[in-house]
Specification:
About 55% of the residues lie in helices and about 10% in strands. By secondary structure, it is mostly helical. The strands form two sheets. It has a three-stranded antiparallel sheet with strand order 1-3-2. β2 and β3 form a beta hairpin. It is flat and about 70 Å long.
């Protein structure tokens, strides 16, 4: 039991640290043996924790299956593509959010983006709540910008009037 708690804590700490920065490198994934131990621990939690709903169990098992299929495609986790490592990280965040009973919008979500004016892919990680807030802010800016235009021309306001 202590080994499982230690393993779970180690995985959580290892995953949280690199995701705090806005522009991050895709985190490394555990080896197959560590994942098998993690899967066994999480499956045990699903069976014993009454706070985890049937929907949460289904989402957790789906994430575990997706991670397992990524491991099955490569001989060594270091051979995983950056996209597979990022998807594995995102699935691990789903599992951690459900098993720790964290707020759903506190989950970290990473995506690969090519910034405007660049040809290099960057990985950006942020919480679901921050992503929603940025989306709302952008929508408000677009609405406000649309309200300041007339027939395709911008209404110019003189600062002195």
């Amino acid at each position: 039991m202590i080994l499982c708690r230690t393993l779970a804590a180690t995985v959580l700490i290892a995953l949280a640290a690199p995701a705090l920065a806005a522009d991050t490198v895709v985190p490394d994934v555990a080896n197959q043996t560590r994942f098998d131990m993690f899967r066994q621990h999480v499956t045990g939690l699903l069976d014993t924790d009454p706070k985890i709903t049937a929907e949460g169990k289904k989402a957790t098992l789906g994430a575990l299956d997706r991670i397992q299929s990524r491991y099955a495609r490569v001989a060594n986790p270091a051979q995983m593509s950056e996209q597979d490592r990022m998807d594995t990280y995102n699935d691990q965040e789903i599992i951690n959010t459900i098993t720790t009973h964290a707020a759903p919008d506190s989950r970290m979500l990473c995506e690969r983006i090519i910034p405007t004016g660049s040809h290099r892919i960057k990985v950006f990680c942020m919480t679901v709540a921050l992503r929603a807030e940025r989306r709302r802010t952008a929508q408000q800016a677009m609405t406000q910008s649309a309200n300041n235009t007339f027939s395709g021309a911008t209404i110019m306001r003189h600062p002195g009037r």
